[in-house]
Write a structure and sequence with these properties.
The protein is built from six helices and six strands. By secondary structure, the chain is α+β, with helices and mostly antiparallel strands. It folds into two domains: 61 residues, Winged helix-like DNA-binding domain superfamily/Winged helix DNA-binding domain (Arc Repressor Mutant, subunit A), CATH 1.10.10.10; 52 residues, no CATH class. The chain is elongated and about 50 Å long. The N and C termini lie far apart (52 Å). Belongs to the BlaI transcriptional regulatory family. Keywords: DNA-binding, Transcription, Transcription regulation. Pfam families: Penicillinase_R. GO terms for molecular function: DNA binding.
Amino acid sequence: MRANYLIFVNLQQNNSTFVELKYLFYISRVKFVKTKLMQLSKSEEELMNILWRRKKAFMKDLLEAYPEPKPATTTVATLLKRMTDKGFVAYQSLGRLREYYPLVKKKDYFSKHVNGLIKNFFNDSPGQFASFFTQETDLSKTELEELKKLIDNELKKK
């Protein structure tokens, strides 16, 4: 009999949160441990966004949430299987139906990716990232003022 166990490990490193998934595979005893950083394909991210919005959903609900042209049921089933294996999604069996729900919070997933972006493309400098973001995204004056308010509020908390 095979059982899969999933462990989430949050590590604090350089004031950034990194999430690792450890897959433990048991067949009467532990065979191996595989460590992997959280990562989803574009198709998986699209499906995960639907699940984050809905909190819980059956296969028919997920298919209805897709824009036209809708993917095949088998495609969504394959994505859900891969996401379950990666530890992003779980399900509750209700008779012959499965109700899927996210195991990873959207904020945790995207903060890991933003931190990786800052580290890999901006020399681990949030200032360089902020400079690039504000200059290259063509923000309006109102949007820049809103960003300034957010930063000011964060400064008050520190």
